[in-house]
């Protein structure tokens, strides 16, 4: 077979003509020696002529000659080794432009598509409205409800919290009501309990300029438990989720915000929290999932069964984001309220308890037991995790139970120990540590045996994550972990093995796995370890063992141990001072 | 009278022990707890959970720190848990266990 020399010119319809000298091409119109051979395909040209210059390819012409032609603009070309650039031909030249659709690339390396960065910054590191279980940001103030009652804090220009006086002993949830004569009405619910009872609906008259609160109890009921509530400004109706009862509607008085019961809607499994959005009301209905009601008639017009306990819901961009305790956040398309459709379940690795919107509804924030989770909520196609970051300064003690937002970029995250402020900052980048579990439980391991569990350690940030220490904090030699350090590129994951080997001396116990890294806002991550301790989580039918020592806490020691109580029926009730 | 106090008074002489398990809040002390007990008229024991096992460790708690109740039978077997206190069900189960 004879080959013809390279000849420029002649372009096909699919290919652009490559000019002389373009992309460093050494094309020539003169025949070369020896006499060239004919080609049958572009592959023949590749074999005889070698690799063409960047952004060009071979075309075998009808006369058997090889023609080097330019690739179309946008065609992929050789990578420059930087994953943050788009390697594409333009005008016959291979260009490497920053890929700003993925992340800020200048000087940085992007994680793989679908991962997230670190755009949350803790700007205020905890204050003391302890055991907060419900919160809201209203008129520049953070309201928290929980263990020691209602607290109100003014958010300063420098993002700190200044306490104000508040006078309400206990509460769980609250919502902003109308503004009457320049003063804000805030409605507050307390669900009562099994030992003191006293469920109440309260009205706060709040004067933002003075951070002043006057409280009035509007409704008290010894039977029901008031929980979530939302005020509909369009109708002046306060919607209240009532444990085990359903959803109650109250008309608010225009003059003072007083409440008059309208009706009690039944047919709910365990209405927990709700949101009024336009002419619909979305109810997180416990194990039944999501229910959608017509605002005027109260009739159920649609429902969606979540795979876990639905405790809260927000709606934005025609999607419902449902805090689903055992899953994370369930995202449902509600553009057709009569037939909601699953967009996706976002597993958050924690216990999603509450959800709020951020950035005018383009983001959704969830309180996730230990973390704050931020989700892209712009469209069903865009839904994905953007950030998972701690929302509490002491991650291995506190439990994050509540988030509140100002609708823009401010997040108040509240846990058992206090309330912190975080801000969402676009383009904030850095290494981001992410561990796949919050706790590891080893049970039933015999003395002398060794059990190993593996967690996944991931860098979800934009710079290299250096984990300088991976250790188990304990005095007992029954725990070990490998590796002891790690360095992870953006998007990279490595396994971390935790070994539990009970000995005759120490057969079990609790410990903490600690990871020290250069993550700027979570320099110390921790995971609770439990070995042969209490038999893990107990369910009906399980026999309690003496290691289940909740009855040993009173004097004299052991007087109320389980063994001493054999033959009696024991009733245990959770108790808290709120 | 609260449900739990009522339960305690109804069954304390029939082989039923009622205990409240308190998870102390940060900053809360025994004096705080005693004050609440006195104010509420609670005569059943309120035990301070000391960081070992709490009712949250029962299966299905979902981590909710809300009233969560359990019944243990005469043989030390957990027979019932519930997210919210349900006086009727609690009494029915106790009556059933006492009748065995």
Provide a descriptive summary of the structure in words.
The complex is a heterodimer of chains A (578) and B (100). Chain A contains 1 helix and 42 strands. The N terminus of chain A is likely disordered. The longest helix of chain A is centred in the N-terminal third of the chain and has 8 residues. Chain A has 578 residues and is mainly beta. Chain A has 3 domains: 99 residues, no CATH class; 230 residues, YVTN repeat-like/Quinoprotein amine dehydrogenase (Methylamine Dehydrogenase, Chain H); 98 residues, Immunoglobulin-like (Sandwich), CATH 2.60.40. Chain A starts with 41 loop residues before the first helix and ends with a strand. Chain A is globular and about 95 Å long. In chain B, the strands form 2 sheets. A two-stranded parallel ribbon of chain B has the order 1-2. A two-stranded antiparallel ribbon of chain B has the order 3-4. Chain B has one domain: Glutaredoxin. With 100 residues, chain B is an alpha+beta fold. Chain B contains 3 helices and 4 strands; from the N terminus they run H-E-H-E-E-E-H. In chain B, a hairpin with a 5-residue loop joins strand 3 and strand 4. In chain B, 35% of the residues are buried. The longest helix of chain B is centred in the C-terminal third of the chain and has 13 residues. About 14% of the residues of chain B have low confidence. At the A-B interface, strand 42 of A face helix 1, strand 1, helix 2, strand 2 and strand 3 of B.
Quaternary class: heterodimer
CATH class of the largest domain in chain A: Mainly Beta
Q: Percentage of helical residues of chain B?
A: 25-40%
User: Can you give the helix content of chain A as a percent range?
Assistant: under 10%
Main sheet strand line-up of chain B: 1-2
Number of domains of chain B: 1
CATH superfamily of chain B: Glutaredoxin
Which keywords apply here?
heterodimer, A: 578 residues, mainly beta, Methylamine Dehydrogenase, Chain H, Immunoglobulin-like, 3 domains, 5-stranded mixed β-sheet, 4-stranded antiparallel β-sheet, 1 helix, globular, disordered N terminus, B: 100 residues, alpha+beta, Glutaredoxin, two-stranded parallel ribbon, two-stranded antiparallel sheet, 3 helices, 4 strands, 33% helix
